[in-house]
From TrEMBL:
Signal peptide interval: none
Pfam family, one: adh_short
Protein source organism: Exiguobacterium oxidotolerans
InterPro entries: NAD(P)-bd_dom_sf, SDR_fam
Transmembrane stretches, start-end: none
Gene3D superfamilies: NAD(P)-binding Rossmann-like Domain
Official protein name in the record: Short-chain dehydrogenase
Amino acid sequence: MKTAIIIGAGPGNGVEISKRFGKEGFQIVCAARTQETLAAVVTELKEHGVEAVGVECDASRRTDIASLVEWTKEQYGQVDVLVYNASILHQSSVLDVSAEQITKEFEIDVLGALDAAQLVAPDMVERKDGAILITGGGAGIHAIKSLPGLSIGKAGVRQLTHMLHDTLKENNVYVGTVTIAGEVKRGTALDPANVAEAFYTLYSNRTDVEKVLSAE
């Protein structure tokens, strides 16, 4: 059985991505900051017949991510797929937002993704197999003036994804991003289930580095 870690396994995209990979027989390791979130997500996954466990993890802390990766390897042997879905939203004007707030969001959006990739990549390179998938946002292409931290973070993680893709492809390790250009909302084109399907399509095809999903 292959194993997938979902960092940022919340009730929207996170749980649907988990379901989609679980449907294909993956053991799912859900990672989130609180036990309350994890308990709800794991319960929902198990109700859908998905093998899942929850592990507390603060994506802004490399030590937390390292512990998560090591625990997963001890329990299941290896990490076949890493999905980095962590992000935070903070509305502000670019003239008012503090450097501390921008730093906090950058740590989650970009540095957490970098840490996670660096921690799983060596084993994937050695096996010449594996995939790293990252949730992007349309704000990284067209900035949203009320979300300066998110816009800067998603621009950074988009470039990070492209660099990881170009660096790891020669070792048969796939890296890709789903760029969500709009508000994720159930019953729309940006339903979390559609986001999850886009992730699995990228993983299955292993060709395109980026898939842009829009509300239209």
